[in-house]
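Quick one before lunch.
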Amino acid sequence: MPMLAADDLRTRADVVVVGSGAGGSMAALELARAGHDVLVVEMGEAHPPERFTQREEEMIPRLFQDSGARTTVDMSVQVVQGKGLGGSTVHNLNLCKRVPDALLDRWADRQRLPDLPARLGEAYDAVEAMLDVTEVTEGQVNRHNALFRQGCRALGLHQGRLRHNRRGCVGSGFCELGCAYDAKQNAAKIVLPAAAALGARMWTRARVDRIDHRFGRVTGVRGVRHDGQGRSHRFRVKARAVVLAASATASTALVLASGLQDRWRQAGAGLHLHPAATVAAVFPEPVEAWRGIPQSIESTELLDPVDPNRRVWLVPVFGHPATAAGMIPGTGAPLMEWLSQYRYLAASSPMLHDHGSGRVGATRDGRPLLHYRLDPSDGRALAQGMAMAARIWLAAGARRVLVPMARPLVVDSLAEADALASIVPRRADPPLAAVHPMGGLRMGGLPRMGACDGFGRYHAARGLWVADGSLMPSSTGGPPQLTIYALGRIVGRSVASQL
Ligand SMILES: Cc1cc2nc3c(=O)[nH]c(=O)nc-3n(C[C@H](O)[C@H](O)[C@H](O)COP(=O)(O)OP(=O)(O)OC[C@H]3O[C@@H](n4cnc5c(N)ncnc54)[C@H](O)[C@@H]3O)c2cc1C
Ligand code: SF4
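Model of the flavin-adenine dinucleotide complex:
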């Protein structure tokens, strides 16, 4: 393997895009489409479909930041984020939802972003067409999701089929480990190749650790690039504009580690996680939740975009064996007893549309530190969600429900399920997982309201833009990727028009 050429390590571009996930890929595409010289710098590697082995022990370290072990500083929430060309779109579950109008109107009003709803509307249309977003068909609803729907129907709860960006899906069930069938219409398959066809360059295994700037103007980025053979080299890219798209946690960390905090200390504020608990159930007949598309049915019975009394989204959630073993509490014989019923297990995830928020900090070399405590009102809502999840499974015919607290709770009647609503969550009990971090560099029409304006331009430095989940002014209450792709399009076009 040759050493990296010196030329590779110092280069120029019109625009350097840091990160290649939902936001970065779309921004790069728009910039390349406008004829600009774009370099995408991505810390992870490329993931060709033939390398998706469907094995957890191989794919989790390859696809996820910190091998899937990233947590908040107090270790109360596991925060799962992707790495590699395509970012978190490579392993995500392909659900596509727009932010509801009521929430967009609130953003427009509270954050002084009057044009944002209309701009997002146009961008949603374009992104949905590009990524083939359609409703999951009835034939694609697996038994696990059908049972969840059956429980909702028995209780008279609102439920429905979700929309997704898949084409040619064979229902293998391995979405979270990467699709060996290349059926995901995501950043890696659709958007980045389109950008590359228009001339965008891409570096992989290149981690940015600093944004260069002089006199309030950003001049490029620097970091470390690995050659895949154990050697690493420092690199530097000079650019007229820098677009940060390293995700809701990492972009903020880069801003802070580079000494670019704004005078209102907006950089880092407004971290939302969508923390979720797990409620498992054992059925008398096999569920075989591993077969088919993992998530296709949702219940919005407890969810409203703006009503604080309804802030829980309910969906089935499936874990491959090692992940499931990590979710179920206990060790030794009791754990083995639960795992021996793997074929009969169902699970769902009450996920918070969190009204409370945390803060992103940074290590000296630009890695994120996530400070987040569950707000007490969010905690009460989570307990209601856990109770509702238990009721749904029992109504669908589950023999018993397991709530994986430090002291596991086993429930086998609706009355016991109702009692779960009085649980007071404590730190890491129940264990929470978050797959949708948002905020940190949120949009605000005025610098005191948010670190970036409604086009992703960082208020406190010239030449710096943000095009990822950091921009969200609040949590979205649903899967955010569609909005992030759409924001990437808006930001990419805006940068292109100003160079
Ligand atoms: C298990 C799981 C399932 C999910 N399912 C869904 C779903 O069904 N629907 C949905 O809407 N959302 C889903 N999401 C969330 C969704 O994938 C993300 O919200 C979205 O991809 C975030 O886009 P982004 O552009 O902000 O960041 P990402 O897509 O995470 O991309 C950021 C990229 O930046 C790179 N990077 C980070 N730091 C640096 C650095 N310093 N230098 C260079 N590169 C860097 C990372 O390696 C990464 O590739 C899921 C997430 C997970 C973890
Ligand atoms: S379920 Fe469909 S999209 Fe998911 S990994 Fe299998 S073939 Fe790919």
